[in-house]
Amino acid sequence: MKVVKFGGSSLANGEQFKKVIQIVTSDPSRQVIITSAPGKRFAEDTKVTDLLIAYAEHFLDYEDTSAIQAVIFSRYQEIAQTFELPADQLVWLKKELRKLQEKTYPNAAYLLAAFKAHGEYFNARLLTLILNHLGVPARFVDPREIGLLVTSDPNNASVLPDTYENFEKFKYGSEKLILPGFFGVTAEGEIATFSRGGSDITGAIVARGLHAELYENFTDVDAIYAANPRLVKNPYAITKMTYREMRELSYAGFSVFHDEAIVPAIEGRVKINVKNTNHPDRPGTMIIPYQEFTPLTRVTGITSSKHFAALYLHKFLLNKGAGLTLKILNILYKHGISYEHMPSGIDDLTIIFDKSQLTAEKKQAVSRDIRAALRPDELSWIDDYALIMIVGEGMHNRIGIMKDIILAISDHNINIHMINQGASEISIMLGTKSADADRAVKYIYEAFF
Amino acid sequence: MKVVKFGGSSLANGEQFKKVIQIVTSDPSRQVIITSAPGKRFAEDTKVTDLLIAYAEHFLDYEDTSAIQAVIFSRYQEIAQTFELPADQLVWLKKELRKLQEKTYPNAAYLLAAFKAHGEYFNARLLTLILNHLGVPARFVDPREIGLLVTSDPNNASVLPDTYENFEKFKYGSEKLILPGFFGVTAEGEIATFSRGGSDITGAIVARGLHAELYENFTDVDAIYAANPRLVKNPYAITKMTYREMRELSYAGFSVFHDEAIVPAIEGRVKINVKNTNHPDRPGTMIIPYQEFTPLTRVTGITSSKHFAALYLHKFLLNKGAGLTLKILNILYKHGISYEHMPSGIDDLTIIFDKSQLTAEKKQAVSRDIRAALRPDELSWIDDYALIMIVGEGMHNRIGIMKDIILAISDHNINIHMINQGASEISIMLGTKSADADRAVKYIYEAFF
Fold first, then answer.
1. Are A340 and A213 contained in the same domain?
2. How far is the first Cα of chain A from the last one, in angstroms, to the nearest whole number?
3. At which of A164, A199, A220 does a domain end?
4. Which A-chain residues 22-51 have CB contacts (< 8 A) with chain B?
5. Does residue B110 have a known ligand-binding role?
6. What is the ipTM of this complex?
7. Mean pLDDT in chain B?
């Protein structure tokens, strides 16, 4: 049995639904289908998830929501009409969409989560209706019914271990099972979503929980590429890679597959096949355990991510006091900020953050507290920090890889702030200003491919 | 006025004392002299500090101490005899040496500190007696008299800020002032020593506190070398370097000058001249503020230190929990262990420690606590870890420096565990197994000199 997940662009309109149905019905083992919400149909389009967020915000601001409801409904209606689904079969959708405003929620964050989750929910129920309409036995499965339990972080939940026990009790026949991605239910019975793009996570949880032989992840690219096609012309398509390669690459910008989705796949040893809904016959990229992997290239992928910021601290004898870093981390913890990396010199420390956590106020508060606690000689922020990851199971000789990386960028006036060839055996991390990151990826790519 | 400090080998016997007296009397501005305890006279000799430690241990073990007292006394007696000092002028020394056993101490750690400190104390008083005997006006200054106040860490004290206020009140004429290095007095009036080699620290504190124009540090090498002469043949002698270069180099193995002694020198902006007691006419190495420094070479020095160990941790989504590193640091804090560096990958973390803090029991306890708190997928220790530092104010183009480093070692099968080109602008740090460190230093040296 395979679990098959379709991304938002694969389910954006009726024409895309046709491709999805063709893919699903062409292979009886493709039994469990995870839906995203309808994505963009063209570059300027708005994803249904964003429409639902706007709907929630209008409602919370006591603004009229009839126009936005109509736009959302029309997205599903257009799909239904492609398959000549009778109009009365969508009455429930219009009603449930409106009734989102009438329910009670613990707070605005849970309200937002519930609104957002309905993009996937409606799409899964609609796909079930269409399959049944076409004579394909199919059954909608609600995450609340199957027991997909998550933590009480309304918009950034994680799966709870009990989920897998619940899945063991789930009974089904040979019909297609259609599950909405992106959300689960908390211990209190509320809807909570994973982080954005979280349908990948649902797919991985379901694939693990139902012991799938394969998790097919259908999206809109033929394969995962060794570098971003916007930076490098015709990049090398990766045919096979390991879980941990995928994880390291998605951490720093490979957006094809959600990095948190790797973990359930690893835990269940479910292989992942990233494929293209528009070219389903192409092999795509297989993500497999490293025990089954023979690297063909020294480097598998190169990526950069610009969503970082860094705090630089200098103080004489900084590393002498055993408790100094502890003080810094307690300050970060107090302000609810987590850090990504913390390279240290003799008397200095750089703390690298995911920028999305930092507001001007938080930065000021952190600076003030650190100044008071540590009295540093220097404290400064680098606002546009990028991390570049060079990843490969084939990098047995890391010093040789490093040589080629350095040779590739040393003549191009690229300022490297940090080189972190730390603990990981399969990656090298560089820190640079955002402005230099794209060029660095290009030169490094050219050195290895 | 210059503060002049002499190391243990410079004061090891009567012949060395002659050189010291020649140096001190040849320049009237050499007014303040800091003494070490008598060091080794030949390779197999025992330093007086180690004899005093043995004396303390014998005493604590209720063993007979008369033999060790006699050996210690003979070291000073030999020096006195070289200058034909009348025998009755050393009666006090024999008496004070014995009376160390009769005093009361808050605990064994303070007892050890007081015993140790007498190596410098006796040498300073002896040098004063000899100078007076030779007709040179000289005055012994006790750290307790001048108010050299330190923290209540009996064997690893730090200077307290009040020291500098006390120094401002200190009155003196044109006579030579002889101060013992290595120790100060706590708020409770007890003797506490700096860490081993701490006479350098006393010299820097005194130079700052008495506003010396220069701090001359006399030892047994002609200069500070760009690499360890035991690893590299005829290494380049550094004529000038900056405070922070010296600090980074001494951190990782440059043992010529105590790294904690840099800080008072910087605070007081006192230049340091490292010179050779055996060749006092040679220029030695000047350590100066970087504002006054023009680098002549890209790299100033290369050093390695093998006294490290590393703990490797791997856990999926390790860096997701904001409080995970905090938990680790709290565990280290609880066990009284400080860490040096903590390079992190996506799902892994390496923690590098000064090995001297780690016993087998502490490692077990830390492993157990971290396992319980984090449940890592992997936890392993690297017991023989070395850090290599490449330091230079001249490394404006760090990526170019890195290129040459990598090219130098890449063909020699040296396994680099970590490259930390972190926050510091004037250094690059490599982590490697101890077995590879010496070879790496050699190849890197050859690339730059």
1. no
2. 36
3. A220
4. none
5. no
6. 0.70
7. 92
